[in-house]
Design brief:
The structure is a single chain. The chain is mostly helical. The chain folds into two domains: about 45 residues, no CATH class; about 40 residues. It contains five helices and no strands.
């Protein structure tokens, strides 16, 4: 991409305005669930609903969480992991989230 085209795209992106919608709790919840069902972020789903161009898939579909040093320490102690082994703590947390999601889905299917 030429330098001029790159700057034009960046200028257009800088001109974009973020819009926040104050919708009711149930409306927000519904939109978020429908977005997940469509494998879209809520923002991309809203673009789709409004008839705007949108990306078919999120670039990096992941969950994020900020952990402090104290959080890592607490998790390490709770799970018997060396508090300096942050990768192992992250892997253990991911495994617990997977188990939680699987068990939640199973319990919903048996109700």
């Amino acid at each position: 991409m030429s330098g001029n085209r790159k700057w034009e795209k960046e200028r257009a992106a800088a001109a974009a305005v973020q819009v926040a919608f104050d919708l009711g709790r149930e409306t927000q919840k519904s939109i978020k669930k429908l977005a997940l069902d469509d494998d879209l972020t809520p923002s991309e789903f809203i673009r789709k609903v409004l008839g705007l161009a949108y990306k078919a898939k999120p670039v990096r579909p992941r969950l994020t969480l900020s952990l402090s040093d104290e959080d890592f320490q607490a998790l390490a102690e709770a799970w018997g992991i060396d508090s300096e082994d942050r990768l192992k703590i992250k892997e253990a947390a991911a495994a617990r989230l997977i188990d939680f999601a699987r068990n939640s889905a199973e319990s919903r299917n048996t109700e």
